[in-house]
Amino acid sequence: MSAPRDAPNGIGKAMKHLDLDGHDLPPSPTPSTPTNGRKYALATELVYTESNDQFNSSSTPIYQSATFKGGPGQEYDYTRSGNPTRTHLERHLAKIMNANRALVVSSGMGALDVITRILKPGDEVVTGDDLYGGTNRLLTYLKNNNDIKVHHVDTTKLASVKAAVNDKTTMVLLETPTNPLIKIVDIAGIAAAAHEANPKAIVAVDNTMLSPYLQNPLDLGADVVYESGTKYLSGHHDVMAGVIGINDASLGEKFFFMINSTGCGLAPFDSWLLLRGIKTLAVRIEKQQTSSQAVAEFLENHGFKVRYPGLKSHPQYALHWSQARGAGAVLSFETGSVALSERIVESTNLWGISVSFGCVNSLISMPCRMSHASIDPATRKERELPEDIIRLCVGIEDLNDLIDDLSQALVRAGAVRLTEGGFEALSSGETRGESGKTTQVVDEP
Ligand SMILES: Cc1ncc(COP(=O)(O)O)c(C=O)c1O
Ligand SMILES: N[C@@H](CCSC[C@H](N)C(=O)O)C(=O)O
Question: Which residues contact 351 (CB under 8 A, 6 or more apart)?
């Protein structure tokens, strides 16, 4: 790559870099100079990248090279420490995440691992009671093995968070909307409370459910934003990636130190795939959330308890819209019966039964059996995660096809009663059966 030394993104500008113990480090390839100056609207910026090679290629080249010839002082020497394709992606991400610096690693969990490696024995973490299963698993590991105290509280209640944070709170870790209960947490309110309790506390927000197209936690007072690039940013379920955005230069250097030391930086080809995916983020999300709204209304109008921040019935509708620009494309609903939920999921044809979300294909899943199965049943119960909950992740297919397929699944599973005008949900306690038959639903004990 031939980025000029004085390029506006700051590539190559001399900076002071410290390792975790404060020792000088050579400059890392993506300095912490502000990169978020946007010229255009976000949808344009997603597509717009400066050419970064000598031939002005339209698509960023994939520098599929582990090493770079030269000697001391050159910008790149080894891909674990830095790679031009990865740098290009990081500069692009910093711009769209409203961050001074972005870093990319091999998965969303890899991103959380990098972030939580700054915790030391005795540190305290305050987090939510509805979290992605993998996040819960990593936090539980840290609690059991690294003497980190992890407090799970209802982060939808600012008072509960205020009661949990204190001067020993090193990190506050939030999801909003949460996965899978689609709860909304007040990022600005919690960030202020955490920083008041301990000015050094790091507030990290998992932005996977919305992506930077719909929400920018750093603008709301968070110190770190991270997300699984496996989801909306890439959009096609063909790459695993994790993204971290920060404004604070020394925090950025600590995270870079971890990435270089552990070797979890995103590979060149995967960086290229993520760059390609980001270009269509706006059109995908716009289409996905328009369809999600229709699917959510369809289910709600047929008597289901639906969790989606695009619905006025969402208890934190106003809060969500005060901090996000859209409702996203993940929703969940309850049926009142695990067996019924299983039948609905298994009766779909177009909706793929799969973990994950953010892909162009629509997916259906039962979180307690799939994405959140690593949370033990007793904890799921304690945290009021309904076993029957069905999660829908809406893709870009034709909306009528999606609703038709869902309708036939609801009918086949016996979740609704056929009426003259269509169908309606059965009231709780009514016998639910396959269409035409009467079958008593018996949930396992
Ligand atoms: C909210 C959330 N955060 C983080 C992750 C982890 O991302 P990845 O699968 O890319 O490691 C996931 C899903 O896996 C997720 O749903
Ligand atoms: N077997 C995996 C499950 C991944 S779940 C992926 C995604 N975050 C989702 O919510 O669907 C694991 O144990 O991590």
Answer: 362, 363, 364, 392, 402, 405, 406, 409
